[in-house]
Design a protein that fits this description.
Blueprint (H helix, E strand, L loop, with lengths): L9 H16 L1 H11 L11 H14 L4 H9 L11 H9 L5 H8 L1 H5 L23 H11 L17 H8 L6
The chain binds fe (ii) ion.
């Protein structure tokens, strides 16, 4: 095996590509692991972050949202396992090869939409969502934030368990649209 990429052969690169395949195919398991890690994070809220994720997804599902909206409702705060300040962007980049451009953008900007509900308490502008008012995905982002995400901190809400969302995770993360 080469010690410098510049000295690699076609056979070595074909071998490396083959070795990547099982890792790429294992993406659903990594997403599930990240969601489970959210259970350790409460961050001062009345529910831990896994419960919040499950409640957001359950509310979207019960409202009749399509599969992709339910999926992004479930995984929207997954980036918090890395860091909170840019968690929307972290999650958006993780999911980009697997979802539509609308879903990518809704996750990427969701803190700007969510800020309407609390940024005034933190000395920040509440109207950041106006920057996206001409985007085709604006209404979907608004619905996600206002009807489900901001309303999903009830520890007594009857959330569906993580197991019930595993088929959805496998459907979307089973194979990337681009490699
Ligand atoms: Fe959230």
């Amino acid at each position: 095996m080469f010690t410098k990429m510049s000295e690699g052969t076609k056979e070595e690169w074909e071998h490396i590509s083959q070795e990547h395949a099982p890792h790429i195919m294992d993406m659903p398991a990594r997403v599930i692991d990240m969601l489970k890690q959210l259970e350790r994070l409460s961050l001062g809220f009345g529910t831990n972050q896994l419960h919040h994720a499950l409640q957001t997804a359950t509310m979207a599902k019960r409202a009749g949202a399509d599969d992709e909206m339910v999926l992004i409702s479930l995984i929207h705060d997954m980036g918090k396992v890395v860091n909170v300040p840019n968690h929307g962007q972290i999650c958006a980049e993780i999911i980009k090869p697997y979802v539509s451009d609308d879903a990518y953008n809704i996750i990427r900007t969701h803190q700007d939409f969510q800020g309407e509900h609390y940024y005034h308490y933190l000395g920040k502008p509440r109207d950041l969502r106006k920057n996206y008012k001409n985007e085709s995905w604006f209404e979907k982002a608004k619905q996600f934030t206002d009807e489900w995400d901001q309303a999903a901190f009830d520890p007594n809400y009857d959330t569906e368990p993580l197991e019930s969302f595993i088929p959805l995770i496998e459907k979307f993360f089973g194979f990337p649209k681009t490699i």
